Every structure is written in structure tokens, then in C-alpha cells.
Amino acid sequence: MSDFKNKTAPNLLFFIGVIMMVIGGTMALSSSIKLAFFKDSPQHIITKESCRYEFKPLDEKEVERTEEEVERCFKEKKEVELFRFQNAKKQNVVEGLSSFFVGLILVLLFRRKKK
Fold it and tell me: Scanning 34, 37, 46, 92, which has the fewest C-beta atoms within 10 Å of its C-beta?
């Protein structure tokens, strides 16, 4: 048990710290690059057809929107999707940085010291 406690556990925690730093750094870097270079979300496709009709309860008839209303609806949906995309990437940056710093703390605490 003493050998595990004195040698194996610190080495294992050091290795886990390095892995956390690599994953966290990669995650933060890739999300930052996506935020910088992508102006809109590549994951979700928004079409004007989704704005064409104003959906009502079952007992009422659907109303077709005018071209102006369709454009306004389309623009609003695009803005909402862009906001969602940017927030998701910002959350990924924060999670990546926190993982990086926790890993850095583990690496600094359990690094091998030369005798």
C-alpha cells in the first residue's frame, strides 16, 4: 500500500493532469476558433418554409404569412440560432479552460521532483 501511495498514485494523478490539460486546451482552442471564424451555425438549417405558415391550435385554420412576415420570421430565427451557437461555443471555451487549469494544478502538485 505504501508503494502505491508514494509512487503509483502521484504518477497516476500527474498523468490524469496531463490528459486534462490536453483535452481542455484542445476544446478551448477549437471553440475559440469556431467563434472567430464561423459567422453562423453550421449545425441547424433554417428555411423560409418553416416561417411560411402561422400555426394555430387544431380547431383554427392555419394562416399563410405575407412575404414581409416570412422575411421577418426568418431573420428572427437566424438571430436566435446564431445566439444559441455562440453561447454554446462560449460554454465550451469556459469548460475547456476549467479542465485545463484543473489539469495544470494536478501536474504542478504531482510532478516528479529531482533529488
Answer: 37
Q: Which of 21, 22, 24 is nearest to 94 (CA)?
A: 24
CA distance 97 to 99: 5
pLDDT of 17: 92
- Distance (Å, rounded) from C-alpha 16 to C-alpha 105? 11
Is the pLDDT reported for residue 86 higher than 70?
A: yes
Residue showing cell 489539469: 103
- The string of pLDDT tens digits covering residues 37-71 is 876 665 667 777 778 777 766 667 777 788 898 89
Handedness of CA 11, 13, 14, 19 (dihedral sign): positive
Longest CA pairwise span in the chain (Å): 82
- Among 83, 95, 93, smallest CA distance to 41 is for 83
The whole model's pTM is what? Answer: 0.69
Q: Which residues of 46-58 are buried (b: 16+ CB within 10 A; e: fewer)?
A: beeeebeeeeeee
Give the three-class secondary structure for 96: helix
